[in-house]
Write a structure and sequence with these properties.
By secondary structure, the chain is an alpha+beta fold. The chain folds into 2 domains: 114 residues; 65 residues, no CATH class. Helix content is 34%, strand content 24%. The strands form 2 sheets. Strands 1, 2, 3, 4, 5 and 6 form a 6-stranded antiparallel sheet that branches. Strands 7-8 form a two-stranded antiparallel ribbon. The chain is globular. The model has no long low-confidence stretch (mean pLDDT 83). InterPro entries: FAD-dep_OxRdtase, FAD/NAD-bd_sf. This is FAD dependent oxidoreductase domain-containing protein. It holds the Pfam family DAO.
Length: 236
């Protein structure tokens, strides 16, 4: 599944509230959504999204977001935290909440860490049996439920149940509720929109104009031809 699932390193923090910040964590959560941006000056990439929850008892604020250098975000190494992410998360709360911090004041950061999220080119999880053409191994007993694009909490439980049902031979029952677009089919695996190039276009928020679409098509055709040639040579 290499290229069909790729790592994105996210950053999360726990920050102390001020006495004037309302304690509303038991009733709501918050998020901000803006345009995906890339700054060529410092090489930083941002999804434009911050997600926030609050401990209903202590008032501590949990805030995370993905802004860091492009080469730092596309990694499976979560042993460190990007300096850009650290600086951004340390200052973002006063820009989101109207009350809680005075102008120029920064929250106290109690903890900061990174973690790896599994993303897919078409922004949908892979669920089901993995074809031999992908594994390159004998047998047909490899299954997958992965690539939740940062939405594992609402998706992974149902997807795991779907794979379990398929393993038990209950594909018909599973397909009554599992979106067909989630399934790990040969057609989807070979689709133009499941290529690494398509994943980068989606990640960077690039509009699919004629030039970009042409590049995707050329790259996709090249992969198809390469796969066909390899299969022909391998069969001799």
């Amino acid at each position: 599944m290499r290229g069909k699932i790729y790592p994105i390193r996210g950053t999360m923090s726990v920050q102390s509230p001020t006495p004037s910040l309302p304690r509303e964590g038991g009733e709501k959560s918050w998020s901000t959504i803006d345009k995906t941006t890339y700054d060529p000056k410092d090489g930083s990439f941002s999804y434009g999204m911050y997600y926030i929850t609050q401990n209903a008892h202590t008032g501590d604020v949990f805030v995370g977001g993905e802004k860091q250098a492009l080469e730092e975000i596309l990694t499976a190494d979560d042993s460190g935290v990007s300096k850009i992410s650290k600086s951004t998360l340390e200052s973002v709360l006063p820009s989101i909440f109207a009350t809680g911090w005075k102008e120029g004041e920064r929250p106290e950061v109690k903890s900061l860490w990174s973690g790896i999220l599994a993303f897919t080119p078409d922004q949908l999880p892979w669920v089901g049996k993995v074809p031999k053409s992908v594994t390159g191994r004998g047998g047909d007993g490899e299954w997958v439920a992965a690539g939740f694009n940062g939405y594992g909490m609402p998706l992974c439980w149902g997807c795991g149940e779907a794979v379990a049902g398929m393993l038990l031979g209950k594909e018909r029952e599973v397909r009554e509720w599992l979106p067909r677009s989630f399934e790990t089919t040969g057609r989807r695996l070979g689709s133009l929109f499941s290529t690494p190039e398509a994943g980068m276009v989606g990640m960077l928020g690039v509009e699919l104009g004629w030039v970009m679409m042409g590049r995707l098509v050329v790259g996709w055709i090249g992969r198809v031809v390469k796969g066909w040639v390899s299969s022909r040579l391998g069969g001799k």
